[in-house]
Amino acid sequence: MEEKRKWKLSDIWELLRNGISAIVTGNLLLRLNAGKYFVHIAYTFLLFWILIFESLVAENALSKVEKNNARIKEMEIIYADRTFEVASMSRRSEVQKRLAAMGSSVQEPDAQAITIE
């Protein structure tokens, strides 16, 4: 009957040393007998590449959306400020003050207009 061998720390060191030497010499895939699964491995790497690329594209699109939302909020603030400015300029008292500052003799009428029948 065959006796089962227990693992030791030296076995882990031996496994790491063999793995590193296989990577350096280029025999890792041959030692793992992965030649028949090469198409599957290549397909998996292609899927991972597509996944990473799509996440980068989505992140880029979301960053553009955030920048545009910030610009829209800034423009809304500017629009509200300009609307207030225009509304304040169209008041009668402001119009009279500006006309007086420009030296115009136009003033608000003292009496109502006379209608001719």
Blueprint (SSEs and pairs):
Blueprint lengths: L8 H17 L2 H4 L6 H52 L2 H11 L15
Q: Largest sheet, described in full?
A: none
Low-confidence stretches: none
Q: End-to-end span in angstroms?
A: 132 Å
Helix content: over 70%
Instruction: Report the C-alpha radius of gyration, rounded.
Output: 41 Å
- Tally the helices: 4
Strand content: under 5%
Number of strand segments: 0
Name the structural class: mainly alpha
Shape call: rod-shaped
Helix-strand pattern, N to C? HHHH
Structure explained in plain terms:
- The protein is mostly helical and 117 residues long.
- The protein is 72% helix and 0% strand.
- The chain starts with 8 loop residues before the first helix and ends in a 15-residue tail after the last helix.
- The mean pLDDT is 87.
